[in-house]
Design goal:
Elements (H helix, E strand, L loop, with lengths): L6 E5 L1 H19 L4 E6 L4 H8 L7 E10 L4 E6 L9 E9 L3 H12 L4 E9 L12 E5 L5 E2 L15 E4 L2 H6 L3 H7 L2
Parallel strand pairs: 2-3, 2-5, 5-6, 6-7
Antiparallel strand pairs: 1-9, 3-4, 8-9
Helix pairs in contact: 1-2
The structure holds guanosine-5'-monophosphate and magnesium ion.
Amino acid sequence: MTDYPFATEVITEVDLKSRVVELGQAISNDYLDRSPLFVVVLTGSVLFAADLVRNVAADSEVDFLGLNRYGEGGRIGIAMDLAAPVFDRNVIIVEDIGDTGLTLKVLRRMMTDRGAASVSTAARFDKTRRRVTDVPIEYRGFEVGDEFLVGYGLDWQGVYRNLRSIWAVMDIEAFVRDPKVLSKQLHSG
Ligand code: 5GP
Ligand code: MG
């Protein structure tokens, strides 16, 4: 254990908190008289969604959607569907992070195909430079770089979703060798 740090904190808990208040205000203004249906994409977006909906003054509903990704091409399927009908609803897709944009593109089309009255997207983070398809993100938390991020819902092999702030992986090979390497860094004092 010599090459610290394996990851470095890039967005603090305080900055996450203040930004979500601003996003909530923007959504409140835009949706005051058309109660949105938040479509929360499992699992990474759950922490963001919990913070976001508490900062939205408009009446709203919350539902969850689980996705599967198949193979390198990343074909997207539904692992767990919404309980609520989307027809005629004003849908706000809640995503953890926009990367290539392919997931958001598929989700938007899915909501439109189901007859949503309107569709917009709230993403906690946005890797704008990695976009391969043009897709709007109406409510964007933070624009971030190319680094792999963990914390605040974002995982590495299922771990680190519970971290209160955002960390950028500096030594990806160390994470491949040992997924718990950041835990060890954090607890080494
Ligand atoms: P996209 O279809 O935009 O390429 O994929 C977005 C998905 O990739 C996100 O919902 C998230 O699950 C995953 N992802 C993209 N970048 C990161 C990252 O930096 N950290 C983590 N943990 N997941 C990411
Ligand atoms: Mg993931």
